[in-house]
Specification:
By secondary structure, the protein is mostly helical. The protein is built from 17 helices and six strands.
Length: 568
């Protein structure tokens, strides 16, 4: 008789000492010190380990470890910290859009850094005040803690010198992020933007690089690592995403330009890597854009009398001239390189295997790619009809924006005061939730360049749901976009005799001469206080092509000033 042979597992004790990163990923950790080899070999940042108990100490009663005296919490502060963990942390810029979980790092810093603790308590109290119907006591606690936290941060900065490490400076960067969120919740746009710029200037001071080959910029270029190696790298990437919102308030270019000094492999390893590659691609595209812009301005000066034109008119003319101006070989090569890189990225992105295909990180990367693609492909179109080739991509990108908003709201544990009604209510999202996601920029590009009425009006409706406190004014932006659509549809009706509903155009039914090549909001160079976007009237210059007298071509028209009352 043949006896079955059984394999007996070797007895072992399950380890609970793995690093936080491996535990989040549900994989076995090799428990190497100071960082596990599994994280390092896969390009991930190791979040470290739980404190190991000492084996030579007798058993003791388990009780919470007291905070340092400077971080001891009152009952009100303890409640605020709990609410922050439960709700507010999910409202921070870029929350849940990284595969690297940076939120535990912030909470750990709050447990040992008084200025971070104060900023957390202040933001959480202000957030809860909004959800509890403007609780006055919570509001007073929020502003008191905010003032104290800023004072503590100034004192902390005074202790830093040239020997300060990246970990030391990370405290300041995290504080800037929390202060920005606080001012956004308080609807203080100007002060919110100051904190973002402070964080970006800090990054510039730590990572500035010069003598970069093959680019048109050397000012404010910063070196960004492909793999996060410390806490500073993680929060630097958050600010690099906020850096893109610098364009939203009217700037032609972001504040910083990320560059990678290391060889960049063709494959994408994860979603964080994919999103970071897009930041590098955007910097390359902006470099090419600036070259074309300079050449367009030069030719415009040579053949046009600009003495009676104001800066906004000139900017409008330059942007329109960029479509047809002849460019040198280097710029042509740059255009080709960016286009090929975008194609390579999209192919590599499709091969990333992520268990949660609908994750915010996945959606955010798709939205950012769409933004860059639409923006890049509209510079050099001499014929305004060429953009219609992206009509299906416009609808796909719009659906991504809707999905991002729905996914984010589903993760929001506590509504704000603006969330008490249906999702269709204007400004129903939390303040600043869209910062760093490119959702708003994507919606702007879709409404501006897609000529299918149903898509454009849906895009405006979605935009009106987004609370842009701390970055821009939603009503101002929606009025601008709605006016652009109305102008094009009305001109199309006059030129073609269209008899259908005003909002039922298909893209091909809007002729080239009814399409606005540019629509530049005034002023094209925004003031530092951002109060221009708080006015009751939105003004912008438009320009479009006019058909030649012979009917065999087009010529550029003159800028036209448009003004509309803001609908709030």
């Amino acid at each position: 008789m043949i006896l079955a042979r059984f394999r007996h597992r070797v007895a072992h004790r399950k380890s609970h000492g793995g690093c936080y990163t491996c535990r989040q990923r549900h994989v076995k950790c090799d428990e190497s010190q100071p960082a596990c080899h599994r994280c390092l070999s896969s390009g991930r940042y190791c979040l470290g380990y739980r404190p190991r108990p000492s084996s030579d100490r007798p058993p003791r009663i388990i009780c919470p470890r007291p905070l340092p005296q400077s971080c001891a919490l009152s009952d009100a502060e303890s409640n605020a910290m709990d609410f922050f963990r439960y709700a507010t942390i999910h409202e921070l810029p870029c929350a849940s859009t990284f595969q690297i979980a940076w939120e535990p790092i912030l909470l750990e810093l709050a447990s040992r850094q008084p200025c971070i603790k104060g900023a957390v308590v202040a933001l959480s109290s202000l957030h809860r005040s909004a959800t509890d119907g403007q609780d006055l006591e919570l509001g007073r606690l929020a502003h008191r803690e905010h003032t104290k936290s800023m004072s503590l941060l100034r004192a902390y900065i005074d202790t830093l010198d040239h020997s300060a490490t990246d970990d030391d400076v990370t405290i300041v960067l995290v504080a800037c992020l929390l202060f920005f969120a606080f001012e956004a919740f308080a609807a203080q746009d100007t002060r919110a933007s100051i904190h973002v710029r402070a964080g970006l200037r800090l990054i510039e001071a730590r990572r500035h690089v010069t003598n970069i080959p093959c680019t048109s910029y050397t000012e404010r270029a910063v070196a960004v690592k492909l793999r996060c190696q410390d806490q500073f790298d993680i929060f630097m990437q958050i600010f690099m995403r906020l850096n893109s919102d610098y364009v939203l308030v009217g700037h032609d270019n972001p504040y910083l330009y990320p560059v990678c000094l290391d060889p960049i492999p063709a494959e994408l390893t994860n979603l964080d890597d994919a999103r970071l590659r897009l930041e590098f691609l955007e910097a390359e595209a902006i470099s090419v854009f600036r070259n074309i812009q300079k050449q367009a301005h030069k030719t415009l000066q040579a053949d046009t009398d600009l003495r009676l034109r104001n800066k906004d008119e000139i900017d409008c003319l330059v942007r329109a001239r960029m479509r047809t101006v002849s460019v040198d070989g280097a710029t042509t090569g740059g255009l080709k390189a960016v286009r090929e890189s975008l194609l390579s990225w999209s192919i590599a992105f499709s091969k990333i295997h992520d268990k949660k295909r609908s994750s915010l990180a996945q959606i955010s990367a798709g939205i950012t790619f769409s933004c860059l693609k639409f923006w890049f492909e509209t510079w050099r179109d001499p014929d305004a009809m060429l953009i219609d080739q992206f009509r299906l991509q416009f609808e796909h990108a719009l659906n991504l924006c809707v999905q991002y908003i729905e996914e984010h709201l589903a993760r929001t544990s506590a509504p704000t005061k603006n969330d008490q009604s249906t999702p269709s209510t204007p400004r129903s999202t939390p303040p600043a939730f869209s910062t760093g996601s490119n959702v708003v920029f994507c919606l702007i590009l879709i409404v501006r360049h897609c000529r299918t009425s149903s898509v454009r009006h849906r895009g405006i409706s979605i935009l009106e749901q987004i609370n842009l406190q701390g970055v821009f004014d939603t009503a101002y932006l929606a009025t601008y976009l709605r006016t652009v659509v109305e102008i094009e549809e009305q001109d199309a009706k006059l030129q073609t005799g269209y008899s259908g509903d005003a909002e039922s155009y298909q893209a091909h039914e809007i002729p080239a001469t009814a399409r606005l090549l540019e629509a530049v909001i005034m002023p094209s160079t925004p003031p530092s206080d951002l109060q221009t976007y708080k006015k009751e009237e939105v003004s912008f210059y438009t320009i479009c092509n006019k058909q030649d007298s012979g009917g065999d071509g087009y010529h550029l028209g003159s800028p036209r000033l448009v003004a509309r009352n803001v609908k709030r």
